[in-house]
Amino acid sequence: MAEEKVDIAVIEAGLGGARDATNILCSSELAASVITTIGEEHLAALGGSLESIAVAKSGIIKYGRPVVLGGPFLSHVDRILRDKASVMCSPVVSASDAGIRTSIKGLIILDGRPCQLSDIMIQVERDFPLFIELSDVKLRMLGKHQLHNASSAACVALCLRDQGCRISDGSIRAGLENTFLLGRSHFLSSKEAEVLGLPGATILLDGGEFSC
Q1: Which residues form the Mur ligase central domain (predicted)?
Q2: For the purposes of burial, counting CB atoms within 10 Å of the CB of 176, is it exposed (0-12), middle (13-18) or buried (19 or more)?
Q3: Annotated domain spans of the chain
């Protein structure tokens, strides 16, 4: 990243967070921490309970830097994360807060792909003001959980904007509308279907991340 002289880097923590290599980053180098979900997929490696996983993941919260919580979390898990943020004097923005409202208006077909037409309204006044109102956002990643992820991502972008980054509402919309995961609930476009010799077909690619 130093060689490429990146302006902003999105760095994913590995397993947990408390003992992760990303802790080489100090508070002065961090714009925001983000904790999206707390699940059971790494129970054995992270202490055997949701509470121990929350403690491990809260290790990415750095002193004085904002933390965006995705969730929604169980109340006791949410408390663990917020308590750690309080100890670290880190302002908290939660995608589940009352000032953040989202809705799914329906599905549309765009270039042969289904898109989720959604509204995202963020108005947070507590630690620092965050505001954006996006109507009819065309999300290529479908489901309520993906809308929640989108609102979390918008919160992060607004945190960066509050720190002086030049990020317009239009840029946030474009980022949300152009985000997708190759091979994960991934609908091919009508043009791609034609290349495969299947004109007019609806083709969904979905490779599972975990084996059962």
Answers
A1: 1-157
A2: buried
A3: 1-94, 98-181
Q: Which amino acid is at 84?
A: K
Tens-place pLDDT, residues 59-90: 899 999 999 999 889 999 999 999 999 999 99
pLDDT band at 28, cuts 50/70/90? confident
CA distances for 60 relative to 64, 106, 124, 157, angstroms: 12, 36, 23, 18
> Which among 68, 64, 62 is positioned nearest to 26, based on CA atoms?
62
Angle (CA) 43-45-49 rounded to 5° is: 30
Indicate the SS3 state at residue 166.
coil
Helix axes 169-177, 144-162, angle to 10 degrees: 150
